[in-house]
Design brief:
The chain is mainly beta and 133 residues long. The protein is built from two helices and ten strands. It starts with 6 loop residues before the first strand and ends with a strand.
Length: 133
Amino acid sequence: MVEAFVGTWKLVTSKNFDNYMKSLGVNIATRQVACMTKPTTIIEVHGDTIIIKTHSTFKNTEISFKLGVEFDETTADDRKVKSTVTLDGSKLVHLQKWDGQETTLVRELSDGKLILTLTHCSAVSTRTYEKQA
């Protein structure tokens, strides 16, 4: 099922992203820049390893992982977290934990679009991506 996520995805809409980042403790200057960027996410599968690359004019990140196996991640806002990604039905669920806190990044496909729902405490952001040819 992970293969359905494979491809290059371009951000087309973003809702409540600033509030989500504020909840994480991201400073205002970083939030302003991040809210203006339209990142591209590239998802690849090589055997049992999944690679998610995010490219933007602000920052590029790349994570490589196996489903269900915890790994160390440095986020785009420089948090050092312990991450685990699982497949929950048709959803790719990415859990990040650090300093007694946690956030989830849930990716799911709907009408040919990739919907990313980010949740931290009561802050929820929805970002929609369209697949590139």
